[in-house]
Design goal:
Length: 277
């Protein structure tokens, strides 16, 4: 994931703490700021990482909202988003990395809805769902330390990308945003040392801009289901192979997920991850 500074837009910004009109600043700028902490009597939540004042009611409210989203996702109405049909993984196990390009071990199931678990794609023409999704993505960007101004590709009608959300018990608990890429941006990355192989130009089709699952729902196979939803729904005319989904500067946990989901064993024995720059 990219690690650049950004302008951000969040609801979480009690004026008592930050004198700034930028709504999402508090949760981002005040992380790890021990100096501010000493001066302003701020406390840092160990679970969500937010710094806030325990003496300020707006701060406490803002922390509550942020904390809940970070740990449990964002409330999601049943009418929001377009339901995704198609392959879903029944069991969450992933086959070991292989050099075969046809390792699609998805099986079909329709049990997600009956469990109140399903995947939707966010529709840019519906402002309420775009707003809720943007609020969730702000928490995602905070955790990834990623720019907050990169939503247009999924949030606007002209955008070429998509945002898929995993809904569980009326909350959006996971997200993947994807965008089309071409071979000029496609590279293999050696998993063990993160080096980019520059002299080969593979042709990956889709870049994973963000992937995230709220803390309470990790290690339940949700990220893999989101990856599968993106793989099978991004291009309606052709289902991609797993290796055609490329990662952008994966985090440590993202790298582990990538190594399991679509790492490819090279004949040298090295594990390669599809990436884009
Ligand atoms: C990375 C992340 C999306 C994984 O979500 P998840 O729903 O917990 O992942 P899954 O349960 O689908 O994991 C599938 C497999 O990937 C591997 N994996 C995923 N996260 C891992 C981790 N933190 N450590 C080790 N292996 C991991 C495991 O092999 C796992 O299968 P297993 O549990 O049967 O061993 C989640 O940890 C997250 O949101 N992290 C913070 C944001 C982030 O770093 N995103 C990645 C950006 S590139
Ligand atoms: Zn918290």
């Amino acid at each position: 994931m990219k690690n650049l500074g950004s302008s951000s837009k969040s609801k979480i910004n009690p004026k008592s703490v930050v004198k700034n009109n930028n709504k999402y600043v508090q949760s981002r700028l005040q992380f790890n700021s021990n100096k501010t902490s000493r001066k302003s009597n701020l406390t840092k939540c160990e679970k969500c990482g937010m710094l806030y004042s325990i003496n300020s009611i707006p701060d406490i409210d803002s922390h509550k909202t942020y904390h809940t989203m970070h740990l449990s996702g964002h409330k999601w109405a049943k009418t929001w988003g377009s339901y995704i049909e198609g392959p879903k993984l029944i069991d969450q196990k992933i086959t070991p990395p292989t050099s075969s390009s046809t390792s699609n071990d998805s099986t079909y199931t329709s049990d997600l809805q009956s469990k109140n678990e399903y995947v939707v794609v966010v529709r840019p023409q519906f402002p309420k769902e775009v707003k809720a999704a943007s609020e969730l993505m702000s928490v995602v960007n905070d955790e990834l330390n990623a720019p907050h101004n990169e939503n247009d590709f999924w949030a606007t009608v002209d955008g070429k990308g998509k945002l898929f959300l995993y809904i569980k018990d009326d909350r959006a608990v996971g997200a993947i945003s994807v965008e089309p890429i071409d071979s000029t941006r496609s590279r293999w990355m050696v998993y063990e040392n993160k080096s980019i192989i520059d002299h080969i130009r593979p042709h990956f089709k889709v870049g994973i801009s963000r992937i995230w699952v709220c803390k309470e729902h990790r290690s339940q196979g949700i990220a893999v289901k989101l990856l599968e939803a993106a793989r099978t729904n991004m291009n309606p005319s052709r289902t991609m192979q797993r290796w055609e989904l490329a990662w952008s500067q994966p985090t440590e946990s993202g790298g582990k997920l990538a190594s399991k989901y679509n790492g490819m064993k090279h004949k040298s024995g090295k594990l390669l991850i599809p990436c884009y720059i």
